Amino acid sequence: MADVLLVYKKNFEEIHDESLEVVKDILKNQSNKIRVDIRAREKVRRADFIGRDLVIVLGGDGTLTSISHNLDSNTPVMGVNSHPRSDDPDGSLGFYMDSSIGTFAEDLKSALNGEAIVNRLPRLQAIIETTSGNKIRSDPAMNDLLIANTHQYAPSRYHLKRGSIDISQHSSGLLFSTWLGQGAWFNHIARESNLGNGDDSETHYLVIARDLGESVDDATYLDWTAAPTIITSDMHRGFVVPDGWDEYQFNRGATITVDLSGPVLQLLTFRESMKDRFSRPS
């Protein structure tokens, strides 16, 4: 018996409720093969994910991103788009959601039989070391990670080290992205700069420091790199925000190291790999 967790988006829109009922019926038909727990996204906890053979996320990319921080590198997850944009202009694009209500029954069988495509997605992680020596590890980010002054009207000031770069800098914040995370907010910048490539996506990440009033034209401000980025804060208070969710605050003198040391995410797809999907012309 496979141990399965279903996490669903609950926002009281009829389309999501209808999708949930369809998925429940399909899972019930597999009751001789699987044991299923069902949790709303708002009520799920880290302990719910421990020891699962498969996690199913029903919703959109935001639903998957919000619960992905609970997933370790050994637990496969599949995304099911509960409201595809292909059916409704107001629906979800679902970049990470390769399954839909129409394909879920067959996709579930593929996942349980070990026939799905396993995408091992690298994730960004920040380690904050305070002046007193305490270390705080952020949640892993599958898309992007922000480091900035908590007072958004004030510049972010810090000392930056990465590879041969060793400078003091001020900007409106440091933005980091995985290769696939470009689909969220980095896409326009990266494609204009011809920066990065999918072949190095498991070892490299994108970083940009938004300069105040000047163009971004060198690795000091825009880089595709495998080296850790280390900053020492010169801000009264700043924060680290992985994937737009939880915030981790730090004070002046704290050191923050960012790289791809987060646990990989095992995302299942069924028709093409995520690299192929990202590379396909839109």
Keyphrases for this structure?
Rossmann fold, 2 domains, alpha/beta, Tumour Suppressor Smad4, 282 residues
Structure description:
It is built from five helices and 16 strands. It is an alpha/beta fold. It folds into two domains: 114 residues, Probable inorganic polyphosphate/atp-NAD kinase, domain 1 (Rossmann fold, 3-Layer(aba) Sandwich), CATH 3.40.50.10330; 140 residues, Tumour Suppressor Smad4 (Sandwich). The chain has a 16-stranded mixed β-sheet that branches. The two termini are 40 Å apart. The relative contact order is 0.17. The model has no long low-confidence stretch (mean pLDDT 90).
Short description:
This protein folds into two domains: 2-115, 3-Layer(aba) Sandwich (Rossmann fold), CATH 3.40.50; 123-262, Probable inorganic polyphosphate/atp-NAD kinase, domain 2 (Tumour Suppressor Smad4). 16% of the residues lie in helices and 39% in strands.
Number of domains: 2
Order of helices and strands: EHEEHEEHEEEEEHEEEEEEH
Which spans have pLDDT < 50 for at least 5 consecutive residues? Answer: none
Class based on secondary structure composition and strand pairing:
alpha/beta
- The CATH C-level name of the largest domain is Mainly Beta
Q: What's the total helix number?
A: 5
CATH architecture of the largest domain: Sandwich
Radius of gyration in whole Å, from Cα? 20 Å
| CATH fold category name of the largest domain | Tumour Suppressor Smad4
Mean pLDDT over the residues:
90
* Overall shape: elongated
Note the beta-strand portion.
Answer: 35-45%
Helix content class: 10-25%
Distance between the termini: 40 Å
